[in-house]
Sequence to fold (1374 residues):
Amino acid sequence: MLFTIQVNNKKIKAEKGETILSALNRNGIIIPTLCRMKEFTPTGACRMCVVEVEGNDRLVTACSQPVEEWMKIKTHSPRVIQARKTIVELLLSNHPDDCLYCDKNLKCELQRLSEELNIRERRIRGRKTKPRLDQSSPAIVRELSKCILCGRCIRVCEEVITATSLDFINKGKETHVGAAMDRDFNFSSCVHCGQCVLVCPTGALHEKHNITEVQEYLHKQDIIKVIQYSPMVTAGIAEELGMRYNREFDRILNAVLRKIGFDKVFTTGTGTDICITEIANQLSAKIESGSDGSLYISACPAWVKYAEQYNPSLIPQLSTVKSPQQITGVLIKTLVAGQLNAKPEEIFSVSATPCIAMKFEARRDGMMRKGISDVDSVLTVRELARLIRLHGIDLTNIEHEPADEPLDGRSSSAVLAEVSGGLAEGVLRSFYYMKLKKEADKQLFKKLHSGGSFREVTIAVGDLEIKTAVVDGLTGLEKLKASVAAGKNYDLVEVMTCPDGCVHGAGLPFTASRDEIKSRSKLVYQADETEAVNLPCKSSALINLYEKYLKENNEISDKKIFYTHFEKRNVLL
Amino acid sequence: MSTDLDIILKKYKQGKREDLIPLLQEVQEVMGYLTEDAIVKVGGFLGLSTTKIYGLATFYDRFRFIPAGKIRIKVCNGTTCYLNGSQSIISKLKEEIGVVPGQTTRDGIFSYEVVACMGGCINGPVINVNGEYITHVKVEQLPELIKRLKYVIEND
Amino acid sequence: MMEDLKAFLIDKVLLFESDTLSPETEKILQQVRREKTDKPVIYISSGTSSVIAGSEKTYSTVESYIKENIPSAELVRVGCTGPTNFNPLVCIQIPGKNKLFFRNITEEKVEPLLNGVFHNDISEDDLVGQTGTRGFELWSGIPFMDELPFFSGQKRIVLGNCGCYDPENIEEYIARGGYRAYIKAIRHYTFDEVCTIIEKSGLRGRSGGGFLTGLKWKNALNTSSNARYLICNAKESDPGAFTDRTILESDPHRLIEGIAIASYAIGASNAIVFIRAGAGHTRNRLQKAIDQAKDYGLFGHNIFSSGYNLDIVIRKESGAFVCGEETALINTLAGKRGMPQLKPPYPTTSGLFGKPTVINNVETLMNVPLIMQNGPEWFRSMGTPNSPGTKVFAVAGKGRMSGVVEVEMGTTIRTILEDIADGIRDGKEFKAVQLGGASGSFITRENLDIQIDFDILKEMEIGMGAGGFVIIDENTCMVDLVRYYMEYIRKESCGKCIPCREGTGRMLEILESVIRKPLNEESGTTLERFKGVMQLETIASVMKDTSLCGLGQTAPNPFISALKNFRDEFEEHIFDRKCRANVCRGLRSFSIDVDKCTGCTACSAKCPVNAIYGTRLQPFFIVEEKCIGCGVCFDICKFSAINVK
Fold:
């Protein structure tokens, strides 16, 4: 039901039941917000969106107040502007004056507000909160002095990830965001997914930086510098550098990376294909043996940590196949090293990912071989973009180059793995081909990609029925548990921590809207639709690897390097 | 220690978040303070993360994470007692005992806290020592009082 | 006799259909109320204020005395009757004669007092007065209690039972007409009818908001739901407020009845009393009263065949002042951090566990049984048209008399200050009255004739608050007092919203800089202090305008009110660096009177900053620039040779 309200002396249309903010935004009136997150209910913590409503003594928050027919609203009266300005000044009075050195410089929401509200002097001074730097986690750094206590990270960790590893501690001016028993982050139940980093408005939460390390190595003459990147990274770099993504961007990126100083550029896609193939093999073995229980895909390192903490009983059911990044990494240190006549320790292997948890994964116990990590350093898309900018390369004026062999090709299943449901589809496609020697109709797998945090589909492969479940975001785990408790037995389960899959990874450019994430998913589906090679087993790189290189190389022919192990974790849950 | 906790937990139903505060209050009453073990166990019982419980417990002034002293002193800082000089009582206690409100001395003997109006306004400043009220407290009385209390505890 | 009495009370009193009881019943009740007694009775006040004053020791001394000397006498603990400065208050009832009240009877005064009274030799020393009961003999020459200015200015309705009966004895409460209104309501009225009665009476919430109680109940009742909750907010951690605690200790049964009727009115089957943490004595008393009420069948299933179910629990709070705010309280009960939430939705629509919840203050609920008993018109006959009824205040501070008092709405502040509290003690000058605790405002000499009324006070931008009434004299520094309140609020702020969390901290820092002595005096710092105070005004107005909950919104009130009424004191602190009340240590400076100083060196040895110099046995002097105004020298000098400047 529409009615009219008066805003700034003009009449606009509003809908019954909507908030003032929603009505304003729809009519092109923008007011600042700070603690608000689009898909979450408002908390009213920041008070930035206050407006003046005639008849109310006090200013009212637009994000939560429902519109009413008689309302006369002023969004930018002197009283409102003074209130917003003072609120930001109060925040700034307790904020380090560190912008130039801060990770979020130029991207910080507090900076933007300060500029918008024209704050030009330090009017309010006083004691600042004691700084605390928590660098214990391999993936995420917490700088508490920059925290404005908006509560976004806490809500995301609780409502989206369900790990609940953060909460407010103490009250009043001593409030700060902390983990269990206020200890360092690595003692807590944090799964390192980094979704909190994505929503943090200031530089209080950011990924652990590996740029400096990478730069150091890039200057070393006696080290072979190698980099791998996953399909999503290309789209992410294009976004971050403000360029239009196209199919040729891969080849542009290859050239750029070589210009920066990498000796070899590989695609993680090859590793994804291997991952898919091996999981399909495991699935086949499981079905043939007729064993109960499900095969859980473990390519998502945050999910693996979650399972090790909360559901250690599931560990036997986790697929021991390593993740694409790690498979590519281990091949670099064995196969490629051999081809280059180099020792593994002479190779510095970097991986660019859309994910933050991969930084944690690279350090895992099961991801080492003879004391040497499969992957030495992990860079997020944002970090890689920084590195590219640092080297001043003009991307519009560069030749296109291919990646290096033998890890240079991939099927479209590798791209599909970047969305939720994609990796399961890749595995099922391979399995289908394995059993029936023909490619499956893609329509068969459509249901794996429709909405909701929990999807279950039964795929008919010949006379076999593969019961598949997809958990899209850890909130779906409850539904999975309920389903399993009710007696359903799944053959294959894919769990992704970030809702929508890796397209929503925390290493990708900051975006406030779900729409941008949906457009990334669209790119993925497009690639899968248009590319010629859809199955891993049809990819020339994979064929080469399996038929030639693995067979030639005794050390790795048993494919044990592609497998890892898991362990129960002792953290404060 | 854990059996004490088990006895308490038996009285409650699992998974009911609204029981969290009464449960923690009981744990503190019986065990004297909230240990990390207790918090983790309560979390498991109620299905809440340790972080959430710790965050909740630190919000409320009454929950302790270290044991209280054998002598617990409460100083009233209500308006009338303030006007009658409770601030100097608090400063003197800080000087004599050596810790700030909320902390316990290293020998475990003393701890004190500042509380809101106890209702003895006309007899202020008022302090409460292990349940006994002392009224019209003067700063000069405190060193002797502390000495006496310490003596009693040490020779018990 | 106990079991029979219980059955009798249930049958012949609680369930008795007619409004007037039978003469035979009345006779027995008179006995229970101790109106017709042939034994002496001694009543001792036993609330926390009395305990602090030593009433428990008095009780044991009286107990041993009467065991030895008057074994037939009865000893009863009652709640707080009157002024706290009279505690421990002892009331003696000799058969056939009016009750006599004696004040400040600490344990050593027991024997001489009782010796005197029971040998007809009543000493005038601690005698306060007598209360008249029809049919009893008057004492000649002894004033009546209700003639005393402390009582004559009051209208004790809510506090009507306080001090009159043993609060741990439900029989006495029933004998005074208790619980009849409740039984009548659940058996003969619909939920809506009860709400309407309260609405008609015009009862407004007594916690400071002043919202029409009946309307609030109707909002909850009319929100469809399968469960509703009634919460009684008995938390009261405002510095300087002790009304709720006094009521809980003196008349818990009426509160329980009020809670029960309110629960019925909104259709709730669960009532929760949210009580303060530290007060073990209060909580035990309330729990005992609840247990007794349960034992009488006043709670449970199908109460007295009315079809109504009600259960009641006590929940202890854990030390957070902000939990007095409705949504914060609900969060605490739900097992979360006690942080306030956005409103709407209001608790009456979606409160505890998402169900309609009504939160009422103790005083509001105390009025409910009386309104049900005497009718809404009776309630309206007191007070003012827009604020009918009475208001309870906790008078404290520098008045001669202090305690929990109750006045009709429309009474002036002057009446409470001058008549009830009997002016300022120790011959000091009156400065201000502070209403409303940490969120309250000051009332100065010019405004003493303001009437106590929700709307009048709101118009003057003075909050009624929950009932704090602190009397301030010339020896209080307004700047320091404002700093004290701001320190309390800053400690208790929940930290959720920016204006309150950061604003209270900054306001406190600025206020501290005004009262503290800086390390060196430059003109720059004076300007900064002045600028600081200007900023205080901005921050205060933004806090008022934009804070999420009542705590933040009212936090700047003491400052704003003090600045308005005592601006010159602020300016003296900033520019003249002087504190006229000699409270702010940082602004004091001391000097030595050379005529009186003997050169004993006691002060110079104690000075924490070595600001006192001199040679032994010669007059010493204090270096003014070094002096930090702590006053240690002043305290220690045996010759009164040190003067405060």
Remarks:
- The radius of gyration of chain B is 18 Å.
- Strands of chain B lie at 71-76, 110-115, 127-129, 132-134.
- The mean pLDDT of chain B is 89.
- Chain B is about 45% helix and 10% strand.
